[in-house]
Each structure stands twice: as structure tokens, then as C-alpha cells.
Amino acid sequence: MNNLNKDYSSVYLISIINLDSGLLPKLSNSSKIKIEFFPEGGNLVEGIFNSCVIQVRDIFNKPLQVDSIILSNNKDLKRQLIKINEMGLGKFSLVPNKNINFIITAFHQRKSISVPLMSSNELGYVLTASTNHIKKEVAISIRTNEVTNNLMGPNPITLLVDAGNKTALLDIPVVLTELKKEFLLPYMKLSNGINTISLLGKNDSVLASRSIFILKEQQITPPEITAIKKENDSLTIRIKTTLTGEDNFRPSISVSVLP
């Protein structure tokens, strides 16, 4: 609450779930299903490995867990089954190709609906971030294709980490021969909550961006009562704690007097 101002505020659409009744009833008409795609890093780039999140919603814009979703294409008979959770979310991977048409087909209550996969870009970067809570680090992977690499040439690439109350700039040269760069980002460079990681190119243009959620465990030592002094009708208690102002510690004490 200390940062409650317009610079640290955001508006997010959330779903309110009744734990007793669950989500709204599933629709009987599958033609009302809405399917959205969210590529990791914001781009689907041709010729390289991509990960993409899929969001399924109903006519009321509420998450919908359909019976099944399949990714297929017009070149071969290979199909990829995409698992959808109760929040209508799923994830799949592919290597986009401009000569191949990818189709997403959702099956729900004996009906189906097919939509084309969002268009891929001939140029671009793919930015992935995987959190490891045990090791307290984030694995960052940056990939691109040969066309983009040849066009960008020796221009430097910068990683911008917006951690709410602090921002870090890291110069990360992408190895030209490998078309990728991988490294670890420790939790200490991030803040609790949502952190936005962006890949910046020439003139600080955003090449790719994604958000991650970090939850740091705080080792809190319970306060210790060091002394108790009774004098007439007064009681003095001394308490020792290891917490400091940086831990947002606000000490308080509650005393109850019984007859």
C-alpha cells in the first residue's frame, strides 16, 4: 500500500469463483466459444521453436474448460492434443511455417469449432522465462531466426527488467552462430509480485516482452520477549525482533486485562 499511486497501479480483469458452485455452467452452443492466443514473449516467429498459451472463454467472457482442443495443420496428419484446465487455459508448442496452415479445433458437448492459428512473423524474437522457486532463479531464453539475425547485424540487444520499484538493465549479446542466448536471472534482481521482462533493440524498440510472477519466501524470526517488569499498576515488556524497516515491519502489541 506504500506505493499506491498511478505509477504503481494497474487494472486487471479477474474471475470471481464461487467455491460451492464453481464457474458458470458450460454453454450448450459451442459456436459461442471464444479462443485467444498469447505467444510467450508476444510473438510467433517463423522457423524456430515457439510456445503459446491458449485462452478459451464463453459468451459471457468467462473461462471455459472445453472437452478437448487439437492443433492440426494442412500438411500432414500430425495432431497435438492441448490440455485445458478449469480456468480455460492451455499451452502448446510448434515451429511456425508460412507454407503451413495451422488450425485449432475445440470440442465441447458433442460440437466443435475450428479457428486458424494467429499469423506468425517472418522477423522477430522469442523470449521465454521459466521460474525455479527452489533455486530462486529465472531461466531466460532468447531465440531468433536467420532472417532476423542477418537484418539486425551487430546492433546491441538489451534486457529490461521492470520489477515495480526497481529496474535493471542488462547488456546481453546474442551469439550470432547459435541464434540464441540462455542465462539465469537470480531472484535478487526481481521483486515480489509481477515483473515485466522486455527485450529492447535499436532505439529502445520492444522486440519481445513477457511478465512473470515471483513469490519470495521471507524467513521471519518471531519476536522475543527479553524482559517483563511489574511496578505498582504498570507492566513493562521489552521485545526484541530481527526485522527492520526494510521488511515493512510495523510493530504492535495487544493487551487484555481480566478481572
Describe what you observe in this structure:
It is flat and about 90 Å long. The strands form five sheets. Strands 4-3-6-7 form a four-stranded antiparallel beta sheet, with no helix packed on it. A four-stranded antiparallel beta sheet has the order 11-10-13-14, with no helix packed on it. The chain is an all-beta fold. The longest helix is centred in the middle third of the chain and has 7 residues, at 146-152. Residues 1-6, 24-31 and 245-249 have low confidence and may be disordered. Strand 8 (125-132) and strand 9 form a beta hairpin. The chain has two domains: 6-116, Immunoglobulin-like, CATH 2.60.40.10; 125-214, Immunoglobulins (Immunoglobulin-like, Sandwich), CATH 2.60.40.10. Helix content is 3%, strand content 41%.
Describe the protein's topology.
Blueprint: E1 34-39, E2 50-57, E3 68-73, E4 80-82, E5 89-94, E6 102-108, E7 111-116, E8 125-132, E9 137-144, H1 146-152, E10 158-162, E11 167-171, E12 180-186, E13 193-200, E14 206-214, E15 224-231, E16 234-240
Antiparallel strand pairs: 1-2, 2-5, 3-4, 3-6, 6-7, 8-9, 9-12, 10-11, 10-13, 13-14, 15-16
Please give a handful of descriptors for the protein shown.
single chain; 259 residues; mainly beta; Immunoglobulin-like; 2 domains; four-stranded antiparallel beta sheet; disordered N terminus
